[in-house]
Amino acid sequence: MKWSYKLGSIQGIPIKLHVSFLIILVIFIWIFAVQEFEIFGFFIGFGGMNIPTWLKYLFSTIASVLFFSTVLFHELSHSLVAKSYGIKIRSITLFVLGGVAQMEEMPRDPRMEAKMAAAGPAFSLGIGILSYAIYYLFGPVSPTGSGETITNAALIVVGIIAFYNIILGLFNLIPAFPMDGGRILRAFFAMRMPYIEATKKAVAVGKSILFAMGIVGLFVNPVLLLIAIYLYFAASGEEKATIISVTLESVKVRDVMSSVPNVVHVPPDWTVNQLVDQMFRTKHMGYPVQESQTSSVLGVVTFADVRQIPASERDTTRVEDIMNRELIAIGSDADAFDALKLMSSRNVGRLIVMDAEQIVGIVSRTDLMRAIQFRGA
Topology of 253-376 in CATH? Predict the structure, then answer.
């Protein structure tokens, strides 16, 4: 099943909708249509209006779509600031917990990161305050008033946008990494200490806040607990990714790969049993398939391919019958961290290193992990 669907693009940035976003959108439409409550002077929902049900759902749909459009522009604010610094934005995806901008890299300049992180909350608070001013100037709302249906409905829509954007902006400023406030906190630390240490400190502060948030959510609102758990693991993952990326900084694929002629290849006409014997001798779990060391690469064969063949058929099955003909390759001048990201995204343990369509080496996940251990030491 396809989980994300491309909606279009803004300023050259692809916009995608995740299936989970459509679910939360429908839930918001239903909540606004059937409920009405007043909080801090805002009427949230159309349930109390003396209008037909279909009209409540129409106004609710308009309010929900407009609110989630502001969520999109929250993420777009981050992305536009990043683009102004020359950072490429792969896409923005809206999903159940909001939006995520996928950037090729996070800036190491603390001031740059702080500006990028602050852009989203600044937009949300700005649109929230502006909407509140409109709500205040043209109010008050009279949900049960007759003859003023459109005016009241419009004010409720504006109130919903004002209330939720102010909440969104303030919530994102909580210094819990990897939220915007946590990134601002990391930028503050990074002005005074090494980047990895700043990340660890920001994550530690964030995890303490998220732990407290989870405790509150346990007794007050389960949704808050789920958000805290999600962000807690997201913080751990980004901390590890940051440490790895910084550790591998300036390391190229050519620095860690096994170079030709030291790359062990296997011919396509070998039997699977011959391949197993080769694996036992060389202790490698995957090989390029070539007629000779100077010929072109026909494919890649791994131990995972071998396991799919019953033992009784391994004397008659050839390597060319089980190899993967899709070559996942990378250049020798590429960054080692990019190689690791490619392995993770394609779920492979090694990459063919090719320059000018000619194999020059092979790099494995083990090679990269060893480099991380050595440089980390």
Answer: CBS-domain (3.10.580)
